[in-house]
Amino acid sequence: MAEKxxxxxxxxxxxxNRDIGTYVTTREQFQLIEGAAEAIALAKQAGFExxxxxxQAGIAKGIVTAEQVEDIHLYLxxxxxxxxxxxxxxxxxxxxPDYPHPEYDRFAWCRKPETGMxxxxxxxxxxxxxxxxxxxxxxIGDKTVDVECGLRAGLRPILVRTGHGExxxxxxxxIIPEYVADNLYQAITGYVLSSNV
Length: 197
Ligand SMILES: [Mg+2]
Prior knowledge:
seven-stranded parallel beta sheet; 7 helices
């Protein structure tokens, strides 16, 4: 039987790093939100796997390349090393419905709020003998689509007020997170780690 693990699925822009109003294309544009690295370190110490789930439609739009996105993720792990931590996996979705692209349209299933990236992570863990325990796993993000993706995937969604912080929009659309936090640090230290998971 597969060993059960608990996972923190994290949106990237506006949750881990500052939302700069457009797609992050360079390392210089990628700036951690205060406390994010420390929070990830604490979560990993508590036994969580860390998985980044990010829509990067700037790829289909021609604003950022897949190589740049992957370099930013390498850089994120370099930054996390300074806090003696790291993320385990990352998934990005290159598509956008308004920007058809011959190479990327086949990935339409992965764009949040679709659960394709989370499902892929579940499958990848299972392939290495690990089963994600959804009842002990969270999805943390700053947008309605993050909360919706978490709910659809059967995870416990948390909204952060950094980035877009779509608290009001969530209310209007009745897409209700389990918890709303000021930022990632508060989400993890004030809720996740005290939820007895
Ligand atoms: Mg975001």
